[in-house]
Amino acid sequence: MYKAFYKLERNPFEITPDPSFLFPTRRHNEALAALYYGVRRHKGLVVLTGEVGTGKTLLLRCLLQSLKQSEDVKYAYAFNGRLSPLEFLQYIAGDLGLPAAGKNKSELLLELARYVVSRGEKKLTTVLVVDEAHLLSADILEEIRLLTNLETAAEKLLQILLVGQPELDDKLDSIDLRQLKQRIALRAHLSSLDLNETKGYIERRLELVGCPAPAKVFPAETIAAIHSHSRGTPRLINTICENALIVGYARQAASVTPEIIDNIAQDFRLQIQTSPSRKASHETDLRDAAKALLALYAQLQGAQVREPELTVSLPLRVNQS
Ligand SMILES: Nc1ncnc2c1ncn2[C@@H]1O[C@H](COP(=O)(O)OP(=O)(O)OP(=O)(O)O)[C@@H](O)[C@H]1O
Ligand SMILES: [Mg+2]
């Protein structure tokens, strides 16, 4: 419906990661280059982190699209971090076309090692791609460490890409995983878009679907409102813009106004974004305030305050969005 009104050939703001919509910011370019270089130059372990919705899966899809065209590359793509180590190894062996059924962990590791080494001897590239890697258990990360040992004197035989939210870094920082951390050859990080990039991002998506006048549909002040509410997170930008086009069409408005964006942000409760650390300190503040009140109450009552009573959880809930 809004597509005809704004003269668009297709939906410009789908939230599924579609490589044909890639808007190459400097950081996205650098990250893609790190992934590509790591695989092609057999660097071994590459880690890409980024906040929720910043384009990690999109970059992986772009990479895999280009690797698919090379006959010398074979990859396994795992995106379910909540597997047991055995299920994880079965999954990647299966994805590489190896017989995995009924095998135990050591047999699977041996099978994978044989496969990777024999491909290495033929100068072929084998890649293990793990998206959502922040969800991997320490046990699976340990299996991955074992796989990083497959190497010749000159190069790594299995290329491993670990991609996930910033919690992945915290995991890799843990003392138990220091051996894996030391094996990271390349790292990249994605962050949210600045105002200029947000403008370029929105206009590029509109151009790609044939919009004749992107700057008319989303004028500068509207883009500023989108950037402010989305904090430059691409997935949120998409959601806001798609909803804005629906409302704009309903109002038969040639241009989306900042007021439309403010309303959408309110509907999606985007203004109530509390980061985990602020949430924690907010909860601590509330707890401290309650302690002070209880102490005061106890003083007034002439009663003594006992520590256990102060640790009961507060009935107050902090808004989480
Ligand atoms: N540079 C970009 N160019 C075009 N679209 C982008 C870009 N970055 C992100 N997007 C879009 O933003 C949305 C979210 O991207 P994606 O799913 O890749 O994020 P993610 O980092 O994998 O998020 P999560 O941490 O939730 O897995 C998708 O629609 C994707 O196409
Ligand atoms: Mg993702």
Compile the SSE list and pairings.
Blueprint: H1 2-5, H2 26-40, E1 45-50, H3 56-68, E2 73-78, H4 85-95, H5 105-121, E3 125-130, H6 138-148, E4 158-164, H7 167-173, H8 178-182, E5 184-190, H9 195-208, H10 214-217, H11 220-230, H12 234-250, H13 258-267, H14 276-301, H15 307-310
Parallel strand pairs: 1-4, 1-5, 2-3, 3-4
The structure holds adenosine-5'-triphosphate and magnesium ion (MG).
Descriptive tags:
about 325 residues; alpha/beta; Helicase, Ruva Protein, domain 3; Rossmann fold; 5-stranded parallel sheet; 15 helices; globular; disordered C terminus; binds adenosine-5'-triphosphate; binds magnesium ion
Could you explain how this protein is built, in words?
53% of the residues lie in helices and 10% in strands. The protein is α/β, with parallel strands linked by helices and 321 residues long. A five-stranded parallel sheet has the order 2-3-4-1-5, with helices on both faces. Helix 6 (138-148) links the parallel strand 3 and strand 4. The protein has helices spanning 2-5, 26-40, 56-68, 85-95, 105-121, 138-148, 167-173, 178-182, 195-208, 214-217, 220-230, 234-250, 258-267, 276-301, 307-310; strands at 45-50, 73-78, 125-130, 158-164, 184-190. Mean pLDDT is 89; it is low at 304-321. The chain has 15 helices and five strands. The structure holds adenosine-5'-triphosphate and magnesium ion. Magnesium ion binds next to helix 3.
